[in-house]
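Loading example: each entry is read as three labelled lines plus one structure line.
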Amino acid sequence: MVMTLAMDKVLLSGRVLAAAVGGYALSVVICLLLGQAMELTDREAQTFNSMVFFLVYLVLVIVMFSIASHKKAILGMIIANGVVWEIWYALGGAL
Amino acid sequence: MKGGLRKSMTWLHTWSSLIVIWLLFAIFLTGTTAFFKDEITHWMTPEQHASVPSEHTLDVAVERLQSVAPFAQSWSINLPDDRSRTLGLSWLGEGEEQQRRRGPREELDAGTGQPIEGRETAGGDFLYRFHFELWAIPRDIARTIVGAATMLMFIAIISGIIMHRKIFADFFTFRPGKKTASWVDAHVVGSVLALPFHIMITFSGLILLAGTLLFWQGGGHGGGGGGQGGQGGQGRAPMEQPGGPQAGAERGGAERGGAERGGAERGGAERGGAEHGGQMAMREGAVNGQNPEGRGKQGGHADMAALNEVASTGRQGRQPMADGAGERGQQRVGRGEAAGNGASGDGIRAGRGARAEGEGPRGERGQRRQAVQREAVELDLRAMLAVAEQRWQQPSYNISISKPMTEDAQVTLQPAHRTKLNNGKWGVPSMTFDASGNVVEETATPEADSVLGALRGMFKILHEAKFADIFVRWMFFFSGVLGTVMVGSGALLWSIKRERQQAGNKGFELVSALNLAGVAGLFVALATYFWANRLLPVEMAERRDAEIYCFFAAWGLCLLHAAVLRQKQGWLIQLSIAAAMFLLLPVLDFMTSPVGFIGAVGGGDWMRLSFDLVAWFTAAGLTTAVLHQRKKAKQPQRGKRKDSKPAKPQLKEGQA
Amino acid sequence: MIVLTILVLVLGFVHFAVSTRSFYKVVFGKGFPSKAARNWLHLVGYGYLALGLWLCYQFRQDHVAILIWVGLLHLAAVLVAMMLTYAPALFKQSWRFGCLGRLGQKWLA
């Protein structure tokens, strides 16, 4: 029981971390992709990002915490990051 | 999280807000006061109180400039408007380079034309800057902290909406005197009833801080006061990612500098790259610079000067004000004598023949003047103002005149503030007249170049209430008060809910102490700040910092008190102190200002009277809290929780 | 003008308040609003709020009117909440004399 509790805490911290950092990274790449898809100029993209980034981040964090299991949430975030960044690089994007 | 969406959202709501709640409370409280920052500064500069704007203020200004700077390259006049009661003049002497330094500037009594030497005060600007840059922390770090807190706030608001079952059913419910339930209601009333405002202010706050938060964009937006400050900024603004897509483009040319991360804003300001930017540009620069293009040419370096001070006010501000003023004073005297006989003194219009015949005490200068023979050219400023008012449907308060007192004189007018919020760009339109009163140039309000830009601009303008007239400003203030109630009640709610089970527990006690210091203590600190403004000796060195130290010293003491003695009527004591201080604040005001109550009413100084009124409202709120606290203390239960609801809404009203 | 607008908005919110279970009782003493009553009250309430918007538009002919309207909504909502808590009698009076929602008698009682 104690084990589970400790484990739970670790997983919870992991989820918080995943939401904060992973969410940030994922929002970044989503913004990049959106900017590219909409063919924005750099300047427009910056304006766009300064608004949309926070909305994306917000949604991601909410989603992160609405998933029932810690493990699923953390894994999901990692995988999502991997996949989307992969797409970004595959499309020739660079940061 | 286990247990369904609502439960997980509750968890998220609770913890995302709790870890920064006291910071958020301070941000909300000081940010709410920032809507009235000019008014607060006015209150905190009692030397200004005698100034009563009148019909003749314009004449006073012109007369003064004629006698002080008849040979200036340009004049700039800031007439009193609904948010200032003094007359600001500045000019650029002959041969002085505009880029290098700002010209002399002075603040005059709008009625008599006497120069005002205002005390050195941090004024409303300290509170304003504190709400997004904190204090004594490097700017970038401070902004990142505030930005992160704001993001958490955003998350808390949205998760709060999701977790709340019947948010609209409970819309109006408020049950005082029921401990937890009343706090829940207070929290819900404070948040739900002003939800649009909260979302707007949080989201736009994030947009304003985007330059710092989105560091992958390579340093955010360039900008700043315009002009030369840029170079410094440029050099120092590191692009985090050299290839960062936006960095290069946005940064543009050198004039765009002062990039936030470079922290050049201050450099820019002090280096006086100021001349180009009007008020807006600078303020904008201070927050999240954009290019101040499309501004009146040299419109308002008076403002710039003021804003330079603002810029240095913040944390490290220790611009040697006194020195500067002294220097200016001297200059003024010298010149005044020089022009004395020339300008026959009673000129009402610009350009009564102040001729170069004056024997300036400085011979060399006098000679030069003789060479530049100036003619008496009359400018009918009133007619121009009337034309501009007709055009913009609002009066203009900023007048700048290039080559004054010559035939080539040109007058540029700008309206007081923007009235729209969909243009997306900073700045106001301007209108230029020639000496005979014909319009020679007119620039429209700058428009954003894209829908996105306009949208972002709208949020920024909303956040800063730039467009707001006095009525809208009060509405924003009221909503800000509700926001403060929301955050404050949220903080207390956490510990009230857990009081039974967790009292004594370390985390709980920590939160309780911070609640006490963060909520009641902040009111004490705020009151102390205002008291210090009036009680510290006027001629004190580093006075501005001293005021700020008082603020933090009081806050620190409250924290200490909360840490050690919170069980012993902590709330009662701190609330009583705050209430007493706010209650006596107007008394202090009328005792230490050269103008008493009757004079203030007679002169229609509503900026000051509203401050005093709000101080009383705050005191009333705090007193209710105190009384309630006493009642509760008499009951056998742990007498440390604070007021019930009635006090709360007003309690926060304490800021204007 | 502004006072009038606030008044209209307050009355609008009174309709919404009456449409909830707990405040229905304040006015009618017992019972609870039927579905039809709720819809009716909401409809009238929205009408009042729209009227408020129109009034705002009268003193500012541009988009700032919307902003003023939203700001006054905040204020009016707080006033209604305070009224319900501290002056329920006043609440009843305002329902009796200011609210067209009463015309929908057949759904209400």
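Chains C and A do not touch (no CB pair under 8 Å).
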